[in-house]
């Protein structure tokens, strides 16, 4: 089953990349659609990130949740350096420190 | 003056210009490998997804949703939404690739990831057109492809050795954060981000992991509406910009 899902996902990914180059060709995308598509990046990412950071076992966890502070620290580094590695390293180290140790 | 660069020149320039990005791409690929293994997926699935899907964000989402036992339809449609942005890349590239045969178009489309697109678009737009400029995209794309496969393999090997107690799952939101932060350059983009974040929390209880799609669409709509409202405020002589939101959308 997972293989089918994976192949379907691969086809979807290819289809979106091939759409204009191979199928529709050099015709302009309608202005409104273009504008809507511009925001897929931030919208999709935010929808995936937020529950990962803010929820704990399906419940909203603000207090006693080291991930929020670690994430904010990493966000500062992300905006400042725009460096993927530095962002991940900052977030992970902060998380471990705030949890009071690695294990 | 100078003659147009050869196919090999273009290819090598693409490889060279893509290389600095590997600093971010290789760790991302490794993290994906680690996460895939820790999510309980067959290492073969984790490895082959990197060539079958070949898209970091999509692969992490498939991994995450499969681990959460989401349905196939939900996984596929979520990946579909995540990939919509590639249509824009495809649209920007089409004028530079329109003279090529079908085989070239298929290969270059397959290689059209975020990182290859941005680097090669810079070459297409800012340097003189040449008969072999598509080799530049082949160069950036193949550089990424090869690195991505090796990074995935390394991640799978490392993942087998890392105990889950390290909380490595937190690397997913951090990776996405690093990808997204440079994109938040305008108020509409910020509106899309915030709306989607709030909606994701509100809709989290929805069945079949539908919260991702719902929140994403709401965020896209918020970005669109904000942009329309701001354009209305700037262009119109009517000071009440709020009226124009309805008209534009």
Structural class of chain A: mainly alpha
Number of strands of chain A: 2
Question: What percentage of the residues of chain A does DSSP assign to strands (E)?
Answer: under 5%
Oligomer: heterodimer
- Name the chain pair whose interface involves the most residues: A-B, 69 and 96 residues
Strand runs of chain B, count: 0
The helix content of chain B is over 70%
Radius of gyration of chain B: 21 Å
**What does the largest sheet of chain B look like?**
none
Keywords:
heterodimer; A: 103 residues; mainly alpha; two-stranded antiparallel sheet; 2 strands; B: 249 residues; 2 domains; 13 helices; 0% strand; disordered C terminus
Question: How would you characterize this protein structure?
Answer:
The complex is a heterodimer of chains A (about 100) and B (about 250). Chain A has about 100 residues and is mainly alpha-helical. Helices cover about 75% and strands about 5% of the residues of chain A. The longest helix of chain A has 23 residues, at about 1-25. The radius of gyration of chain A is 19 Å and the shape is elongated. Chain B is mainly α and about 250 residues long. Classes of the chains: A mainly alpha (about 100), B mainly alpha (about 250). Chains A and B meet through α1, α2, α3, α4 and α5 of A and α2, α3, α4, α5 and α6 of B.
